[in-house]
């Protein structure tokens, strides 16, 4: 599988946030998007996930096993089949329990859900411990794990995450990173926005989003140099 994102542009009224975003990624790789607050990371991820509309550009998918491919920006049905999205804010219904939220996302009903809890993604994300609790009463890390569980319910090949580890403790960040690395090992593609060193070093490739364009950046452990480049 290969994705090719080309010439994405986006303006909010007269403010041009994305000028020309172009990059590609292959199966088994994770792409980290870094950049200062307000540089446009969430806007870019929202466009790729279908939550926002681009003014121009393409998001092409090449996958021999799929009977249909094409520009995911204009193919919402195909996109919802192949792309999972974890936005910065929780997409969960706070009044419901974790289990009831998951039931809304897992298409196969209780059997699929039980299976995923026993030996699948929900076990990897360790959500059993708080399955019957109301989302309202969960910590940020617990909510993030459930949100990822919901985003991958349809077994997408591409997972887009907006700052997955923000404000989480080191253990929780690691649970999520381990899951994402397993997702890539199984042939998936991860695209994430991040301000976290732990996440940045885990990515196969990183880019800095600045002045509306992406520039490749290789983090060598020197935080001062990274801050200067942002
Ligand atoms: N709906 C909107 N209408 C107008 N301007 C917007 C809108 N959404 C975002 N912006 C502006 O677009 C720019 C990019 O915002 P965006 O949220 O994509 O940045 P970001 O890099 O994700 O920031 P952060 O790191 O703080 O999450 C900012 O200047 C923001 O104020």
Automatic annotation (TrEMBL):
GO terms for molecular function: ATP binding; ATP hydrolysis activity; transmembrane transporter activity. The keyword Nucleotide-binding applies. Residues 3-230 form the ABC transporter domain. One of its GO terms (cellular component) is plasma membrane. InterPro entries: AAA+_ATPase, ABC_transporter-like_ATP-bd, ABC_transporter-like_CS, ABC_transpr_LolD-like, P-loop_NTPase. Keywords: ATP-binding, Nucleotide-binding. The keyword Nucleotide-binding applies. This is ABC transporter ATP-binding protein.
């Amino acid at each position: 599988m290969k994705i090719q994102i080309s010439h994405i542009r986006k303006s909010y009224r007269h403010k041009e946030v994305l000028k020309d975003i172009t990059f590609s990624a292959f199966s088994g790789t994770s792409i980290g998007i870094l950049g200062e607050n307000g540089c446009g990371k969430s806007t870019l991820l929202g466009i790729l996930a279908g939550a926002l509309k681009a003014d121009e550009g393409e998001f092409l998918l090449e996958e021999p096993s799929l009977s249909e491919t094409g520009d995911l920006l204009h193919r919402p049905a195909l996109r919802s089949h192949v792309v999972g999205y974890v936005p910065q804010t929780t997409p969960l219904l706070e009044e419901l329990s974790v289990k009831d939220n998951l039931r809304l996302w897992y298409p196969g009903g209780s059997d699929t859900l039980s299976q995923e809890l026993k030996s699948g993604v929900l076990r990897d994300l360790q959500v059993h411990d708080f399955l019957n609790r109301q989302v309202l009463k969960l910590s940020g890390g617990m909510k993030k794990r459930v949100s990822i569980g919901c985003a991958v319910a349809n077994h997408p090949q591409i997972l887009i995450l907006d700052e997955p580890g923000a404000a989480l403790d080191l253990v929780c960040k690691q649970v999520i990173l381990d899951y994402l690395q397993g997702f890539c090992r199984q042939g998936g593609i991860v695209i994430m926005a991040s301000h976290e060193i732990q996440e940045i070093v885990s990515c196969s490739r990183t880019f800095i989003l600045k002045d509306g364009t992406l520039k490749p950046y290789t983090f060598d452990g020197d935080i001062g140099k990274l801050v200067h480049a942002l």
